[in-house]
Amino acid sequence: MQGYSINGYLNAVRRRSAKTVMVEGASDSSVLTRLKRALGATTGQEPSGNIDVAGLLTDESLKGLGKREIVRSVLAAAASLSEKSPEIQRKFGTLQDREWDGLEAGLHINSSWAPPLQSEPHFTTTGHSIENYFFKINVVEAYLRFSYSDDLGQDFFNDLHARFKNIIVLAAVYSLALKNISSITKGGSLLNRSCISREGDVYHFTDALPPLLAQRSIVCPPKFVTTLNEQIEQGTRGLNLPDPARWICHGHLGEDAIWACIAHLAHEHTGKTELAQAVERGTREARFKHAVDQLSREESSSIEPLGHVVSWLTRA
């Protein structure tokens, strides 16, 4: 299904026998589909329900809009349509990325944080985006043991557990720093382990970071690295658990930072540059699929509202 106007799409949703949830992109669709299929595995039947991505719509009024804005535009049209066709309220739901909505303007690593309010059938991710659900030690460890058990021993995993909270703090600080200099898009898939150093169990940034950012025409404020490292120190002292820092991370920038630190740790333990590069960059698609599969094994309460989305979607 493609090439729909907003009204044409909503009419198609109304005609379907099963419910529909619209999501922003392919990653969101993959996660919900895997969770939905996990439900089918327990019942022995394929669950009902349709999952559509925002890119299906090519309405002229949507040109130039981001995926989240498209979902919101369709939601607004559905709300208007519901006055004449109440059935659309029962059949149409959405899942949107929270990003940093509802958080204080000067957001920093130790800011107060609360999960977003949910209003079935329109849901919001707990963290910045769907990727934040992967920023858990059990998800990361399962993938590393599956993929690199020939090289990574128990000492590596002991250190990973000891340092994981601090890795998440670094990822959150990095995310907010690039947000504050309006460089989120430019900074994607850039960070690597050469920008990372370690003191005890705490990871910091090195002076290799600003030149790397400059390659993307990102101009850093004075004392950029010093400021980030001070924020990391403050965060590691004030945070006992990875939450809520893992929810504050930008989905893609946070992922870059987390895996740069893990690659640094892998190189520290093995001395193998090729292995460190593979951990950092080489297996993103496999890493994503493994993380999605791992989520499907979690209790619904630990991945909300995703479990709630699937429950609504598949419920008659």
Quick description:
The protein has 2 domains: 141 residues, no CATH class; 147 residues, no CATH class.
What percentage of amino acids are in beta strands?
Answer: 5-15%
Radius of gyration: 21 Å
Kindly state the percentage of residues in helix: 40-55%
Ranges where pLDDT stays below 50 over 5 or more residues in a row are none
What is the global morphology? globular
Q: How many domains in all?
A: 2
In round numbers, the mean pLDDT is 95
Give the oligomer, counting copies of the same chain as homo and different chains as hetero: single chain
In sequence order, what are the helices and strands, one letter per element?
Answer: HEHEHHEEHHEEHHHHHHH
Number of beta-strand segments: 6
End-to-end distance, in Å?
23 Å
Number of helices: 13
**Biggest β-sheet: strands ordered side by side in the sheet:** 2-1-3-4
Structural class: alpha/beta
> How many strands, what sense, and barrel or not for the largest sheet?
4 strands, parallel
